[in-house]
């Protein structure tokens, strides 16, 4: 059976379909070539940094700038290159040149980071003092652009226009930063809902990047955090304001500066102008340290904080706790012990002065070779910290410089006393041990026991080497008595017989002559 022939119209439709497919492929190839040519010759689109992942350091805006979040993302096209409203995502027009010029201001206290004139710094500030104490006022991180000079001098605002809480604040912990809504009236923004901040895309000064450093359009509704740690002191702004104490008396001439930094925080030297003034001028400003400084439950000043250890400055009674403080502190404490007592208890002092703590930085590094001279010159100074029998003696015994030390290393033993020709042999000189014993017997007994003396000075009958004086018999012992002692030995024996009985037996004929 022959196959049935296909209809004529079916063959025509097939040829038309193949022709259309070929034409489509040619059109597709031509379109690809045009796209490649445009990519090579056309303008490159504006590039934006990749958005930071949600798991990064970003956090949502909070009630004020102090709780905003940190991000390091930057807009490669600049803060106003292709800025968009964070809610509507509409593009903003390019910023005018005068707005772009203002972006260079408000980043530091002075334009281009120049030093702040001393006249504009807070009262009491010293040149190159690097700001107030970092323990009292911990380091801050200000991630805002703000020009105080423009707002005060050009726009006519006052300090309390933004910092209105300064008149009512009673605690140093209170945040006096203005709320974000304070900026809305002039900057065409809406911070009433910090999770949905609204901006005017047509106003460059109302864009997030105008004030928030490091902001990128890809960050949406998140900005870098402003970190202003709480100060470690007591302060009542309302009380000072009620006494007609102006802002500049503590913070300096902020209206002459652009960005206010830690350097404009108060200095204690300026506080003392009132708090240490004569009673008639000081009024109710007390000079007690506890007026401003935090205290422990014991009443002592708190000196240990997360930011570091608090110590007095040099200008305050020359009491800076520097490298030479160990030598100088006795002068300061002697002049005013109550000043030291603000931070230190008597136990703190006694722990060192009774020898229990023994700080290792009291003596120089080579004091082991120098201490014999220092001990002989001023033994009382040594004994104020060291106990002779428990500290000095044990070390001397280990080193083999005492009679009771180990004799196994006799060949290598050191010698504490002068040579034998001067120390024990005659004639007696000021370097003879007899003179030393008469001058300061307590120095001798710090190392020696009574037995050490009796070995040479006791009679043979009492266990010594013998005095060499008849009728006790001969020997190598040495008579410790001075010349003419026999004529007055009776009074010495009646006064205290014990020293006599160390070297003599009760039946010793020499004692019989003294009865």
| Shape label | elongated
Low-pLDDT regions: 1-13, 43-84, 470-475
Q: How many domains would you count in the coordinates?
A: 3
| Tally of helical segments | 23
Main pleated sheet: 2 strands, antiparallel
Structural features, described:
With 515 residues, this protein is mainly α. The chain folds into three domains: 65-282, no CATH class; 289-353, no CATH class; 367-448, no CATH class. It has 23 helices and four strands. The chain has helices at residues 8-41, 97-102, 148-154, 159-162, 184-187, 208-211, 237-242, 248-251, 268-275, 279-282, 325-335, 337-340, 346-353, 367-377, 379-383, 388-399, 420-423, 433-439, 441-445, 450-457, 489-495, 498-503, 509-512, and strands at 189-190, 198-199, 304-305, 308-309. Strands 1-2 form a two-stranded antiparallel ribbon. The radius of gyration is 45 Å and the shape is elongated. The N and C termini lie far apart (170 Å). Mean pLDDT is 78; it is low at 1-13, 43-84 and 470-475.
Task: Please describe the structure with a list of short key phrases separated by commas or semicolons.
single chain; about 525 residues; disordered N terminus; mainly alpha; two-stranded antiparallel sheet; 3 domains; elongated
